[in-house]
Amino acid sequence: MFFMAVVVSLLLTYLSFKYLNDLAKFATNLSFIISGPTSKERILAYLWSFVLSTFPAFAAVFFGSPSISSEIETKTALHVFTLPIPRIILLIGKFLSSVTVTSAIVLTYTIFEVIVFQYLFNVLIIELLYSFLLTLMFVLAFSSVTFLISSLFNKNTYAYITALITYLLVFNAATIIIELLYSVTPYYLLNNAASITSRVYINIFFGITLSGGNTSPAPFSLIAYTSIVMFLYFIISFGITAVIFERKEVK
Hints:
Blueprint: H1 2-18, H2 23-29, H3 39-52, H4 54-64, H5 66-73, H6 77-80, H7 87-121, H8 127-152, H9 156-182, H10 190-193, H11 196-199, E1 204-206, E2 211-213, H12 220-247
Antiparallel strand pairs: 1-2
């Protein structure tokens, strides 16, 4: 995952330098006229953030899904569960390890982004910080979901597959149904709430059946709402995981 993050970062660095002067044309082709002293910065940052949005999900699945299920499958839990340590402490340690590694991948990508922006524009827009912090919130939220899924299975493979299907198919299928029925984008679904990481630069979205927005940064109300949604996913998923993990038995 680290190697992939570095490769993608280097590719985006090359593309940023090569097509910097074509950013306005790119936005125009999408029917968005973005002007102002930081227009190029916001367009480029949006593209970097849009690409970044895939990394936390796959990294969380890769590092989080096996955290509990693999302990059961390999019978390691027979030894771990007998240690004189409360299970909740074990769970928190596993969770923090997974979140730390995933966050390190996000940080690696962000460092490349910051260096590119500092070199090209000699300025760092505040939205870079907002996007980074919101991405970390998404890491917490989706890592909790992957841990919850991992706690439900005794087979590592099942946990991997279910976590990927949940994020890539279940959430998107629910989005399609809700958009078709009610013509609104359900930001209470984690995949849509996570879009705020790029919308802090330009408040546009390309939904499955809906698209729209405007060229201004996302309003504070939307940032606050999606942050609360992600925080609730984190708290609720981790709470349920803790209850399941406490009662988990190894057969």
